[in-house]
Write a structure and sequence with these properties.
This protein has about 100 residues and is an alpha/beta fold. It is built from four helices and four strands, in the order E-H-E-H-E-H-E-H.
Length: about 100
């Protein structure tokens, strides 16, 4: 049986971090990506084998897409990509400027 592969963007903390650990525990090869490289390295040490680490800032859209492409290539394809990135504030009117400010933060 082929090993399943997943990439989690926003893996340095919160839901992304916990999801990365769960996927690894379920036997996935995991690529973890986020802005905070030291936290990613801590997570990689916790997960152990079969994890790739890549620093990425999703507010830099073109660079982030390129980094994702590289990660997918390094992993030989993936079965799952999860974007669990960022913080936010209540934005009931869905004003995009609020979201851009959050991403830039």
């Amino acid at each position: 049986m082929l090993k399943r592969k997943a990439i989690v963007i926003g893996a340095s903390s919160g839901i992304g971090r916990e999801l990365s650990k769960l996927l690894a525990a379920e036997g996935y090869s995991v690529g973890i990506m986020a802005r905070r490289l030291p936290l990613l390295n801590e997570l990689a040490a916790e997960i152990g084998a079969d994890v790739l680490v890549q620093e990425v800032d999703v507010s830099q859209i073109q660079r982030a897409m390129e980094a994702l492409d590289v990660m997918i290539e390094q992993m030989g394809g993936v079965d799952l990509v999860v974007i669990s990135e960022g913080t936010g504030e209540n934005n009931d009117p869905l004003d995009w400027s609020v979201e851009l400010e959050t991403m830039a933060g």
